[in-house]
Amino acid sequence: MTFINPKTDFAFKKIFGSNESKPILISFLNAMIYDGNPTIADLEIIDPYLASRVPYLKDSYLDVKARLAGGAIVIIEMQVLNVASFAKRVVYNAAKTYSTQLIRGQGYFKLKPVIALTITDFEMFDNDQEVISHFVFKEKKRLFDYVDPEIELIFIELPKFNKQLDELETLTDKWIFFMKNAPTLEIVPSTMETVSEIQQAFAIANETNLNPEELADLEERERYILDQQGILLKGIEEGLAQGREQGREEGREEGIALGMREKALEIARQLLNVLDNQTISQTTGLSVEDIQNLREE
Hints:
This protein is an alpha/beta fold. It is 44% helix and 11% strand. The chain has 9 helices and 6 strands, in the order ααβββαβββαααααα.
């Protein structure tokens, strides 16, 4: 079997946001938000995915949106590329979802909490190695909650998850492993067969269950992501080559090193709002400390 990549927005919407995905999404959200506890008993998928209206390219930053039984709204996004100002966009989307609940004349008491769950294929927080980060409004010094949490931001950073199949223990582990590794698998692992919702997710992700239109759309989206990554890497390679040439023109080893470092710093500055420190370091050859110093300039 071949499984589609759940990290593309098309596949993510199909697996978690289609009409048959309700039990899958409940299990996934319980794992990501509530440590695997069966806190969510029911939900409604808002604007569910329909194969007949798949757009050519991503038309919305919100991949899946659901309303829980108590009225709280969960917006779920899978993000592969670390685009500029992404962190601000997450806050904006959460605040916009919260503020647009009311129509004119309605009281604020009708507002329901909003949970923004963001899964990233890059590292968001360089100074922390936890896979899941959960943010709420708290008093700055004494850390008590601002009434009940009205807006929560939860991030799942896939690159920080390194457990292997034989190390998966919790429902949370199994869902994160699915998100990160499904395309590399040929069968449903025995360690995950006990979770019926994950089995359902694998069934939806099975390429043989996609129609030709869906397969074509999936290929276009994956090609788009690869193209964007290629554009970024090409720019980096050209910049570093220019730095080497600049150093050669100065005619000394010190000049070569200086030219390359100056160019690497120039490129790194351009990537500060696009990539995390570790990725910039690996790409440019600068140290993580160098990158952090650039951020603090």
